[in-house]
Amino acid sequence: DQQVKQNSPSLSVQEGRISILNCDYTNSMFDYFLWYKKYPAEGPTFLISISSIKDKNEDGRFTVFLNKSAKHLSLHIVPSQPGDSAVYFCAARSNYGGSQGNLIFGKGTKLSVKP
Amino acid sequence: EAGVTQSPTHLIKTRGQQATLRCSPISGHTSVYWYQQALGLGLQFLLWYDEGEERNRGNFPPRFSGRQFPNYSSELNVNALELEDSALYLCASSLSGHRGEQYFGPGTRLTVT
Prior knowledge:
Order of helices and strands of chain B: EEEEEEEEEEE
Number of helices of chain A: 0
Helix content of chain B: under 10%
Number of strands of chain B: 11
Radius of gyration of chain A: 14 Å
Oligomer: heterodimer
Largest sheet of chain A: 6 strands, mixed
Shape of chain A: globular
Number of strands of chain A: 11
Largest sheet of chain B: 7 strands, mixed
């Protein structure tokens, strides 16, 4: 049972345009959401996060939107750059029950930004 | 500021052997997390240590174990290695408990032959 889903395995975008990466979740007890970027042979790099009490968080070119009613979040990258090409993971955290402490990850979306 | 470090980078073992992986957290972080990323799968939570104690573990058999030392570094041990244990093992650290973001190390690639 996948609690965090990234339904698009890949996304290709032209340099300078907007990249939108999507993530759906099923567990209403998640209270914190994060996005990570991962290059091959490296560990994930933290990008941006959002608490469940907010609906938007912005950091430079990266903005995360949270729609709790739809159990959906998205990461917007504007403008996209070739260096953004990587696998992006959505992750969620619950502080209740047996899931305390750990992050639950989606399977990732591979973003390719073409010059 | 130094990030999370892991050693070794690569580890090759044969089936039935034991593997030991090491992790040093970011200075000031007291929580250490271990994740497994097997081929074609997402990151799966293994273990969480905080202040020297195991706080939570994922759905993995008991042959996956570890510990956290007084300096907050951590060790992951995998006993009786099986072929399907071949994966990238990632360590992450955060401020105490479950607050804050988790910052990942580069990982240890374990290959079981």
